[in-house]
């Protein structure tokens, strides 16, 4: 059968580009096996799950796991902390990454800029447990570097591991240190793709560097910023378990200000052993994140069609 005689557009494209689609088969199979098949485990959220009985024979209890979670006050605290941290991470991370990208681009191509680029992406490859070990050297009450500096200046020491008020700021700073450099590289790649003739025309018209940045660079980066924001929004209900648990651990003094959905689920699974309740919390987290991405993408598509992911 000739391709031209096939009326269905999708089938015709599949046959025409069959070799390209074959290249995607391993990725599709990987996604099915490791991303979609495990979703069968969602049913655990509605069961009194017993590992010995398995998914198919455990007792079905409906929404009891959800009621147990939402009847208390913990869900308000951890949900608020989760959203607050991720909003702060997105806003501060995007701002700093954009600032670094524009600054380095304006400095041009030289050895100093290349060295700075290499140094600022290095934290992205350091694991959070290693960062957590380093943080102890900074924040320990008696021997910590920060408290030693405060003591030398005649100021009172700060009990970082018993005073929770400092940790929202500490977590934001650590997140910036680890992620802003890599984000700046992404924005720099987008800036390089902007037509240089636009900048030359702006200079001829008498525009300053700051005017070129605000009138050309930032507007041309709008689609990239929106796309990265939408991708980040999907994780706004993600609790950054690796970062927070590596830095804070099970410190009960800091729980009210640092506990997020992921850390709560992880701790509950270790202490209560209730697979059903922890799965119910994780399902709540995933559904809200999914709805946020869909809603934000639809809103972005209405404002600017080129900014929507799908």
UniProtKB/TrEMBL annotation:
Q: What's the main place this protein lives? A: membrane
Q: Does the keyword Transport feature in the UniProt annotation?
A: yes
Instruction: List each copy of the ABC transmembrane type-1 domain by range.
Output: 79-296
Q: Which InterPro entries match?
A: MetI-like (IPR000515), MetI-like_sf (IPR035906), UgpAE/MalFG_permease (IPR050809)
- PROSITE patterns reported in the protein's UniProt record: ABC_TM1 (PS50928)
Assigned keywords, A-Z = Cell membrane, Membrane, Transmembrane, Transmembrane helix, Transport
Subcellular location field: Cell membrane
| A family per Pfam | BPD_transp_1
Q: Where are the transmembrane segments?
A: 20-46, 83-104, 125-146, 166-192, 213-237, 275-296
| Membrane topology according to the record | Multi-pass membrane protein
Family stated for the protein in its record: Belongs to the binding-protein-dependent transport system permease family.
Q: What is this protein called in UniProt?
A: ABC transporter permease
Species, as recorded: Paenibacillus mendelii
């Amino acid at each position: 059968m000739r391709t031209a005689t096939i009326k269905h557009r999708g089938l015709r494209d599949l046959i025409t580009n069959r070799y390209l689609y074959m290249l995607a088969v391993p990725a599709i199979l990987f996604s099915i096996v490791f991303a979609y098949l495990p979703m069968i485990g969602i049913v655990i959220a509605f069961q009194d799950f017993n590992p010995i009985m398995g998914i198919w024979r455990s007792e079905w209890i409906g929404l009891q796991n959800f009621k147990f979670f939402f009847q208390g006050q913990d869900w308000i605290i951890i949900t608020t902390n989760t959203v607050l941290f991720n909003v702060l991470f997105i806003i501060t991370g995007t701002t700093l990454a954009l600032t670094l990208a524009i600054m380095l681009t304006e400095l041009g191509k030289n050895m100093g800029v290349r060295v700075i680029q290499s140094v600022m992406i290095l934290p992205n490859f350091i694991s959070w447990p290693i960062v957590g070990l380093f943080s102890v050297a900074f924040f320990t009450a008696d021997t910590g570097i920060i408290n030693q500096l405060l003591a030398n200046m005649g100021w009172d020491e700060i009990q970082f591991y018993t005073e929770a008020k400092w940790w929202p700021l500490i977590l934001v700073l650590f997140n910036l240190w680890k992620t802003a450099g890599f984000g700046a590289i992404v924005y720099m790649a987008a800036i390089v793709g902007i037509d240089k003739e636009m900048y030359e025309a702006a200079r001829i018209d008498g525009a300053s560097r700051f005017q070129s940045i605000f009138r050309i660079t930032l507007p041309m980066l709008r689609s990239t910023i929106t796309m990265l924001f939408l991708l980040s929004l999907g994780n706004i209900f993600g609790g950054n378990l690796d970062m927070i648990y590596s830095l804070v651990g099970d410190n009960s003094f800091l729980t009210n200000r640092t506990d997020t959905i992921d850390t709560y689920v992880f701790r509950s699974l270790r202490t209560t052993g209730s697979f059903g309740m922890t799965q119910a919390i994780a399902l709540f987290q995933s559904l809200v994140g999914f709805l946020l991405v869909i809603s934000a993408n639809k809103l972005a598509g209405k404002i600017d069609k080129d900014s929507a992911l799908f």
